[in-house]
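Hi support team,

I've been running sequence recovery on a batch of backbones for a student project. Most finish fine, but this one hangs at about 90% for roughly twenty minutes before it completes. I'm not sure whether the input is malformed or the queue is just slow. I've pasted the structure tokens below so you can try to reproduce it. Let me know if you need the job ID as well.

Thanks,
M.K.
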């Protein structure tokens, strides 16, 4: 029997154990209606838990006040060694029961499609026992998780988390849920379902996920032994800014993630990125390969990433490679190491100008490297023109960044409590010294908030600048540090307008995000930012600190002006939907892979290049 005809293991996990059992029963009925052999296995509790049930007087006591401590089987209230023994027994029994259920499903299916549904999975056990990542206690459950083809994680509110089982009084429900989130990123085949939706919609989404995996297995089964007929083509996306530290992440990581998820609709996708530790993991249908260069620091790490990238290209079989350029050298001569088409994405070629201070011919390396590429994506027209001049034979296309679409609240236009800078902390590149000088001179009536993080040296530099420009007991300049997604959305909603005093930019993704909330953007008139011209922005001559401060005061005092500019900015942002932007990358990938001969033929000197908004 082929591996594809082996039963598909599907776990339904989540904090609401009654809800997962109900969902399993409904899925089993719907799959049987489609002629699929289904075996349902209840996995709640091991032999020890069933032999030592919760006493009635404990069950009726409110959790969180020592009641759970009296439960003999509570893994949170036992020492490390008993907890490991308990986990070993639980994992061994689960593996044995799964093996028996697989055999039963194969026998009933008689060569047809079979699905083994469990109302509990290894993810639930790893969360319940609270093992840290990489621990020996959780190794058994991780091996079992590798055998599951799909784990449906039903996401519910924190108030239902007590249904997961006992929990120590010191643990909050948020911490308990965070543990589940951490493990879900490390296990393969995890799919999130919104458990707060109507039950019928949850069942429909879960059924569609299972059917998708079954169809994928059928397509894989149609490939002949040792052949490639019908196999999905493989696309690799490489970007340094996926490093583990949030401070090193930039807009390039967000764009690469969006593009990878869109390409995964038609191709097998692998993302090569940097990390503190090497390794691979599968998440949301995409394989992530991390090169272990994160511990070397931001500058040395980038150099090591560029050095290792050609070796990764030699080891990973691929049909197309998308390379997000990484400073300081930007290009890595990757097309010389692979026969497949390579698309260079100019996400940060000009953002590390301080690297040029070193006694290394960066510009020469960059010029020679660009001539190796036959397909390059630029984010704005100005950079597209520059790249086309440096590499006349390249097919240069301008594909801007995108933004999540949202409804524009007309009642909030013109409102705001502070001036906002949002982005990576890099004093010279982002022009933070110019911003603080302009604010100090103009003294607008609104406070200035700086949100973002960077490498420790840059954060120390910014802290010194803020202390110098905001003395006294009531400073008007506030650095709030790293802003997560929810915090970032709150800052954008509550801000009056955004400031972007950058010396160098390739697109300005933060500006587009602010425009989607109806916020004007004040910036220096850089060629790379002229896509905003007349779209709710305010541009001043480059690096004119006095003019920047004057326009800052004007925007801070004139709510009617902010309202007009914000309305124009919100309308403009609606033309930059991620679906349209990533669709252009998908179309480019199909064009190169569907006609490989034409894609690899060098273009004549002076060939035209396409541009968009």
């Amino acid at each position: 029997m082929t591996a594809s005809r082996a039963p598909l293991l599907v776990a339904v996990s989540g904090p609401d154990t009654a809800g997962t059992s109900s969902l399993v029963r409904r899925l089993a009925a719907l799959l049987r209606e489609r002629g699929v052999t289904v075996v349902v296995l209840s996995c709640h509790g091991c032999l020890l838990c069933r032999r030592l049930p919760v006493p009635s007087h404990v069950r009726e006591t409110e959790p969180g006040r020592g009641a759970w401590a009296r439960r003999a089987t509570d893994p949170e209230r036992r020492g490390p060694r008993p907890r490991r023994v308990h986990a070993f027994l639980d994992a061994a029994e689960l593996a044995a029961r799964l093996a028996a259920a697989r055999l039963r499903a194969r026998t009933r299916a008689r060569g047809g499609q079979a699905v083994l549904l469990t109302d509990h999975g290894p993810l639930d056990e790893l969360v319940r026992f609270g093992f840290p990542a990489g621990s020996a206690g959780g190794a058994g459950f991780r091996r079992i998780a590798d055998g599951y083809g799909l784990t449906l994680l039903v996401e519910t509110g924190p108030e239902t988390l007590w249904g997961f089982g006992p929990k120590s009084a010191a643990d909050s429900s948020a911490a308990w849920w965070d543990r589940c989130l951490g493990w879900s990123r490390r296990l393969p085949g995890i799919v999130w379902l919104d458990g707060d939706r109507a039950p019928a919609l949850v069942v429909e989404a879960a059924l569609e996920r299972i059917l998708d995996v079954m169809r994928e297995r059928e397509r894989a089964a149609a490939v002949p032994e040792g052949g490639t007929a019908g196999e999905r083509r493989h696309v690799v996306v490489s970007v340094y800014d996926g490093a583990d530290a949030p401070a090193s992440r930039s807009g390039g990581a967000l764009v690469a993630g969006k593009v990878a998820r869109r390409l995964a609709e038609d191709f097998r996708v692998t993302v090569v990125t940097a990390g503190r530790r090497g390794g691979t993991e599968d998440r949301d249908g995409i394989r992530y390969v991390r090169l272990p260069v994160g511990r070397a620091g931001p500058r040395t790490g980038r150099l090591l990433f560029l050095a290792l990238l050609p070796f990764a290209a030699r080891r990973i079989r691929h049909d197309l490679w998308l390379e997000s350029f990484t400073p300081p050298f930007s290009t890595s001569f990757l097309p010389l190491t692979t026969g497949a088409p390579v698309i260079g994405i100019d996400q940060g070629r000009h953002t590390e100008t301080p690297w040029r201070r070193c006694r290394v011919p960066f510009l020469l390396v960059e010029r020679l490297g660009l001539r190796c590429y036959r397909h390059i994506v630029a984010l704005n027209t100005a950079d597209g023109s520059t790249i086309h001049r440096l590499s006349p034979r390249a097919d240069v296309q301008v594909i801007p960044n995108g933004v999540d679409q949202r409804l524009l609240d007309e009642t909030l236009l013109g409102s705001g409590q502070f001036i906002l800078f949002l982005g990576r902390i890099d004093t010279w590149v982002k022009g933070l010294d110019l911003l603080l000088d302009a604010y100090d001179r103009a003294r607008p009536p609104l406070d200035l908030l700086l949100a973002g993080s960077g490498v420790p040296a840059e954060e120390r530099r910014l802290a010194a600048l803020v202390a110098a420009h905001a003395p006294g007991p009531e400073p008007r300049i506030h650095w709030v540090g790293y802003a997560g997604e929810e915090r970032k959305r709150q800052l954008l909603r509550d801000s009056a307008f955004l400031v972007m005093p950058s010396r160098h930019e390739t697109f300005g993704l933060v500006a587009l995000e602010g425009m989607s909330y109806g916020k004007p953007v004040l910036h220096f008139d850089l060629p790379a930012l002229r896509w905003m011209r007349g779209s709710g922005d305010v541009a001043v001559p480059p690096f004119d600190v006095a003019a920047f401060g004057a326009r800052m005061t004007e925007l801070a005092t004139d709510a009617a002006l902010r309202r007009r500019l914000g309305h124009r900015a919100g309308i403009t942002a609606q033309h930059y939907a991620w679906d349209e932007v990533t669709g252009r990358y998908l179309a480019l990938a199909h064009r190169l892979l569907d006609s490989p001969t034409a894609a690899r033929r060098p273009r004549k000197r002076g060939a035209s290049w396409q541009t968009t908004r």
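--
Follow-up from support: It reproduced on our side and the slowdown came from queue contention, not your input. The two ends are 54 Å apart (CA to CA). No action needed from you.
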